[in-house]
Amino acid sequence: FTFNAKGNVYDSPSLSAYSNGVFQTPQLFAFAKGAGVFAEAGPEAIMPLTRAPDGSLGVRAVGAGGGQSVSSAPQVYITIDGNGNTSTQTSPGLEQFGADVGKYVDQRYKQNIMRDIRPGGDIWNAMKGTR
């Protein structure tokens, strides 16, 4: 098995079946002479890559207005205030995307804080004066 918690790129018909989806639970796919697992460390998207005219490789966002390519990446502004409340702002038409990204960031923020305040965590150690 190949685990992909830090991301990876594959050319696999088995994996292509998952294209354009976001998965919350571990998924198994076949490739070459082995198998891979994705979404094993949390939500993960399987997105097709497109090479731009400048040679760059990445995911291309397509607007809802008839298949025209978007020339710049969507921007999502996420604010976490002093009380831990999260809010997001994004371009019109991408509100659901912004909300989903905001929820994901909020979950990761809370997981990191919980890890850091446990005994031995960074915040715990700083409060105890140890490293």
Automatic annotation (TrEMBL):
It comes from the Bacteria. This is Phage tail tape measure protein.
